[in-house]
């Protein structure tokens, strides 16, 4: 891997995970960080320059890549600015606030001639990679259905601390686009192309927010399989994500960071397949995916033929979320083709 001097824009909660991941890569060095907060309010990596204006940072520093770790509404303008400077981008989730934004953002890579990757790091989890390989391999028969359950806890103080999180104009949504977006992305990766969606978004808690805290939806894929997706921030704790894939011959379950397989004829006869690698600390539920994703990103920039998640690919889950919201708003089934008529 060649040497990299990088920048990070947005030095909040998730940026700390990026800093730790980069620290494990001796060839990648954090040259500059940018945040609107004062220097004494954030943690600036040793040796890194500090800026409060990202345009000033982009103009003053010679950077080989920039990580965008900002609130959702800033992803699009900052991604464009970084790409305009000819600098490769690694953007945190969600890639955009809606599918229309994603369609615009997907043009930046070709327009400005730089790779743009998105942090959908749960695709790098051991359990998910093993599940996807098992379902797509064909030995377990046709995929029949999927189930995903993402139940987390977010109290009123979570939204009060950062009011943008509860404001549709700045967040683009609630539990679906913020907490459950990785789980929905995994469901699409396994299920394939979406045909139609019926869903409900709602609020079951009395917080003063205009984004959803809960959702239930039914997704039908073009291959005939369907998925039940349940997401909520109204639980009292952060439960581990549960994903179940039912095939003709087997039932696979991800729960508690472990993947199990049972024969379809005896769902209780579960056998452990593989476990996830976890990061220590209070954000252990992030998993170790960031480390592997960031390593692969810089391996790609160094010339290795390794995959990364493009804006267009990451945008598929944003399209699914848009369809769930539209189905709930209009009280009907929505079709994937409707997305392109609104862009």
TrEMBL record:
Residues in the signal sequence: none
GO molecular function: nucleotide binding
Short name of any one Pfam family annotated for the protein: GFO_IDH_MocA_C3
Gene3D superfamilies assigned to the protein according to its UniProt record, in alphabetical order: Dihydrodipicolinate Reductase, domain 2, NAD(P)-binding Rossmann-like Domain
InterPro entries: Gfo/Idh/MocA-like_OxRdtase_N, Gfo/Idh/MocA_Oxidoreductase, GFO_IDH_MocA-like_dom, NAD(P)-bd_dom_sf
GFO/IDH/MocA-like oxidoreductase domain span: 128-249
Domain Gfo/Idh/MocA-like oxidoreductase N-terminal: 4-118
Organism superkingdom: Bacteria
Identification of the protein by name: Gfo/Idh/MocA family oxidoreductase
């Amino acid at each position: 891997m060649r040497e990299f001097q990088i920048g990070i824009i947005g030095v909040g909660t998730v940026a700390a995970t990026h800093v730790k991941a980069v620290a494990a890569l001796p060839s990648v060095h954090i040259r500059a960080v940018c945040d609107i907060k004062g220097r004494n309010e954030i943690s600036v990596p040793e040796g890194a320059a500090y800026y409060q204006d990202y345009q000033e940072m982009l103009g003053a520093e010679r950077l080989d890549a920039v990580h965008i770790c900002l609130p959702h509404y800033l992803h699009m303008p900052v991604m464009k600015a970084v790409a305009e400077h000819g600098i490769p981008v690694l953007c945190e989730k969600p890639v955009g606030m809606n599918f229309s934004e994603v369609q615009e953002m997907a043009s930046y890579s070709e327009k400005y001639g730089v790779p743009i990757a998105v942090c959908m790091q749960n695709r790098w989890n051991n359990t998910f990679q093993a599940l996807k390989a098992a379902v797509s391999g064909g030995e377990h028969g046709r995929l029949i259905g999927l189930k995903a359950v993402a139940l987390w806890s977010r109290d009123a103080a979570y939204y009060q601390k950062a009011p943008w999180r509860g404001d549709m104009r700045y967040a683009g949504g609630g539990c679906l686009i913020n907490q459950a977006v990785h789980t929905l992305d995994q469901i699409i990766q396994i299920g394939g192309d979406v045909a139609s969606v019926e869903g409900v978004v709602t609020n079951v808690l009395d917080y003063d927010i205009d984004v959803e805290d809960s959702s239930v939806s039914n997704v039908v894929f073009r291959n005939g399989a369907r998925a039940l997706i349940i997401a909520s921030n109204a639980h009292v704790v952060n439960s581990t994500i549960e994903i179940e894939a039912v095939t003709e011959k087997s039932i696979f379950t991800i729960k508690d960071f472990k993947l199990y397989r049972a024969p379809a004829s005896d769902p209780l006869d579960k056998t452990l397949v593989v476990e996830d690698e976890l990061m220590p600390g209070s954000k252990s539920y992030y998993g170790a995916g960031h480390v592997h994703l960031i390593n692969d990103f810089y391996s790609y920039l160094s010339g290795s033929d390794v995959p990364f998640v493009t804006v267009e690919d990451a945008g598929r889950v944003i399209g699914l979320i848009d369809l769930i919201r539209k189905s709930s708003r209009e009280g009907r089934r929505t079709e994937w083709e409707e997305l392109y008529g609104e862009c």
